[in-house]
Each structure stands twice: as structure tokens, then as C-alpha cells.
Amino acid sequence: MNAVQIPHEIIEATSFSTRLKGYMFKRTPPINEGILFPKCRSIHMFFVNFPLDIVFLGEQNEVIRTYSSLPPWKTTGVVKHAKATLELPAGAIDRYNIREGDVIDFKIVK
Questions:
Q1: What is the domain count for the chain?
Q2: CA of 73: how far to CAs of 47, 58, 83, 100, in Å?
Q3: What is the tens place of the pLDDT at every residue in 26-45?
Q4: What b-and-e string marks burial along 71-110, b requiring 16 or more CB atoms within 10 Å of the CB?
Q5: CA 83, CA 91: separation in Å to the nearest integer?
Q6: Contact in structure between 103 and 1 (CB atoms under 8 Å)
Q7: Residue of 30, 82, 35, 91 whose CA lies nearest to 61
Q8: 83 is in which domain, residue-wise?
């Protein structure tokens, strides 16, 4: 188990509109940012115009499951024990060597 620091600005999607929209309809992919969806066990990529790395987290921010470069119009299955989902720029999982069992550390920006 490794501790992995994510140096991106992470936005927490807590409002209905932020949770609903996420990266939908954006024209360019995120570079140094990500979105955390609390209480989220699956995601879809409908109307997202670029691939994203998806990291499902447990209660202590431990990595339960990852999807590298999930393409537009795809979905993940339900990740049973996930407590949150972190969407990151495509390539972040490999760049930061994120693996199942790792604990993710990140800073939420307002």
C-alpha cells in the first residue's frame, strides 16, 4: 500500500448541478484539476468529449477500483464498496502510479 499525493486542484461536487454536470459538455479535457463525487459508486461518460481516469475510493480514500482513460459514452459498473469517485485527467493513474489498495491524498479547493 502506497500513499499517493495528487497535486491537482480537486473540486468537490456536492451541489445537484455540479454532480449532474461534472465534465459534461466541456470542449477540452482537464489538465491540473479533478472532481470528487462523494457517495458515488458508478459514473457515466455521456456527453463527455474526452477520456478520463476514474478512481473509486473507500472510506479512508483507499483505492478500490480504477479505470484508465475511460472513453466518452462508456459507463462503469457499480463498485459495491466505493464511498466516492475521483475523476482525473486521462493518464493520471499511470503518471502517479495509482494502484488498488493505495491511499490517495488530495486537497479540495473551494
A1: 1
A2: 7, 25, 23, 24
A3: 999 999 999 999 999 999 99
A4: eeeeebeebeebbbbbbbbbebbeebebeeebebebeeee
A5: 23
A6: yes
A7: 82
A8: 3-109
Tell me the backbone φ, ψ of residue 84, rounded to 5 degrees: -160, 160
At residue 16 the predicted structure's pLDDT band, cuts being 50, 70 and 90, is confident
Q: Which long-range contacts (CB under 8 A, 24 or more apart) does 39-43 make?
A: 39/83, 39/84, 40/82, 40/84, 40/85, 41/78, 41/79, 41/80, 41/82, 41/85, 42/75, 42/76, 42/77, 42/78, 42/79, 42/85, 43/70, 43/75, 43/76, 43/85, 43/87
The C-alpha cell that represents 55 in the structure block: 478512481
Q: Considering the chain, what is the average pLDDT of its residues?
A: 95
